[in-house]
Design brief:
By secondary structure, the protein is of the alpha+beta class. It contains six helices and 25 strands. A hairpin with a 7-residue loop joins β17 (about 325-345) and β18 (about 355-375).
């Protein structure tokens, strides 16, 4: 019995010693793996403090993309247009960078993998050690410089808050404290953290009449009414309801374009002297804020029923033949207009929201009335010009068929290395295209709009209206 006890004690001792050795080996292996991981990965929380930049040089984009493909990365995760380089801070301003990570779409390659799989010349281009451009290509750059196309990402702000935030309007961003945009089409100002926007708009884009096409401009104040408390969507939609109220007023621009704007088609359509009120709102569904309803309306403050005198040359007009064959001068005047539509916001990849789409579908209303324009010679030989809103043989253009009512719009925006956007709209049986592209950095753009009716043009419509404008975007 004593011998059996001794054998059992010996076995137990061996098991304890063996298990201790296994535990020590496991702990040692785990500690080594932790150290290795810490050397080859960068914590997401501190990425914003490291130098980062987007690659926009097509040749380098192709080389990096093909490297990921040859290494059997999942092609579904790769995006040649979204390549980001992460580097260690340089000890001196003129020294080359040390690469920590290269990201292509959603796939990343750490420093160890970069050294093992990417050629020295490509690494040299990316770090600024080798010259990329010109006859001295592949020669050492002293001092180090990156002479290829790239776009720096501010180190104090992470990428998801500067270039690829889930915002619904790049020109009216909600992810900043202050924002200001300036173009010939619109000037807008974000009033601090209040969520209020002050907007000055030139044109009636909602009915496919941009810039001075309709002879009207407007001033509106937009304010939030309901805060979005859903943590999933609050960044994209801080408020579930945004309402705006303002006024539309007449402008004489476009009747006789000066030499500077002579290439822009002159207009015939007018806004009346009585002025208009504009009102509207955007309502996001609480259960799914990506979906909602938008309403916009402009209507006269009063109904003009009596003739009134105007200044010579202050209204556009055209000649119209009456039933007796006599010609009359007629001024078309835009009266009521509005749009009601459902919308849907869609980010192709919510985790990396660089590609954004918005769809609108609904109804629009446009009303244009003809007013007769007369001129009477006064006793002092001056000429008195008068508008008659309810003279005979005048016509009121309203929606008469389904195409007149239909409103549809699709908008696309990219916030990759070079943010740009465009939209196409069908409204009032007319097409409106809008595009903006960067010229310098992320603050100076070029915007262009083109409008044309898709049916035979009415007397007051412009067959091909094109306008281009510089666009300034400043954020704090």
């Amino acid at each position: 019995m004593k011998q059996i006890k001794n054998i059992g004690l010996l076995v137990l001792t061996v098991l304890i010693l063996f298990s201790g050795k296994m535990f020590a080996q496991t702990s040692e292996t785990f500690d080594k793996q932790q150290i290795l991981d810490s050397l080859t990965t960068v914590d997401e929380g501190i990425r914003k403090y490291f130098p980062r930049w987007k690659i926009c040089e097509p040749d380098l984009q192709i080389q990096i993309y093909q490297t990921f493909v040859l290494l059997d990365y999942d092609k579904k995760l790769l995006d040649r247009q979204s390549i980001e380089v992460l580097a260690a801070p340089r000890p001196y301003e003129d020294s080359p960078f040390e690469l920590l990570m290269i990201t292509c779409g959603e796939a990343s390659m750490n420093s160890v993998e970069i050294d093992a799989n990417i050629g020295g010349s490509l690494v040299g281009f990316l770090t600024g050690s080798f010259l990329y451009q010109g006859k001295d290509r592949l020669l050492q750059a002293i001092p180090a410089k990156r002479d290829y196309c790239y776009s720096d990402i501010p180190t104090e702000i992470p990428m998801t808050q500067s270039q690829a935030e889930t915002i619904i309007s790049y020109l009216q961003p909600t992810n900043v404290s202050q924002a200001f945009t300036l173009s010939l089409f619109e000037q807008s100002l974000k009033i601090g953290e209040t969520g209020f926007w002050l907007r000055s708009i030139y044109g009636n884009d909602e009915i496919s009449m941009p810039f001075w096409y309709a002879g009207s401009a407007k001033l509106a104040l937009q304010r939030p009414l309901y805060v979005n408390s859903d943590s999933r969507t609050t960044n994209a939609f801080p408020y579930l309801i945004n309402a705006y109220l303002g006024a539309s007023y007449r402008t004489e621009s476009g009747l006789k374009p000066g030499s500077l704007m002579s290439w822009v088609p002159k207009r015939i359509l007018n806004n009346a002297n009585d002025g208009k009120m504009l009102a509207g709102f955007d309502f996001h569904m609480p259960f799914k804020p990506e979906v909602g309803l938008t309403v916009h309306a402009e209507f006269p403050l009063r109904n003009i029923r009596e003739p009134y005198n105007i200044k010579a040359g202050s209204y556009g007009y055209y000649a119209k033949e009456d039933e007796d064959g006599r010609l009359h001068n007629v001024s078309p005047v835009l009266r009521n207009s509005g749009v009601i539509s459902a919308f849907y916001h869609w980010w192709l990849n919510p985790k990396n929201p660089e590609n954004y789409l918005r769809f609108n579908l609904g109804l629009n209303y446009t009303e244009v009335k003809e007013w007769e324009l007369t001129d009477i010679v006064q006793p002092d030989l001056s000429i008195l010009y008068t508008l008659h809103p309810f003279a005979e043989d005048l016509y009121t253009y309203r929606p008469r068929e389904f195409g007149d009512w239909l409103y549809a719009k699709v908008e696309y925006r990219s916030q990759a290395a070079f943010p740009f956007g465009f939209s196409l709209q069908y409204s009032n049986q007319s097409l409106l295209g809008d595009v903006w592209i960067p010229l310098f950095g992320n603050w100076f753009y070029l915007q262009a709009k083109y409008a044309t009716p898709l049916r035979p043009a009415r007397p007051y419509e412009i067959k091909n209206f094109f306008m281009i404008s510089p666009l300034l975007r400043l954020t704090i």
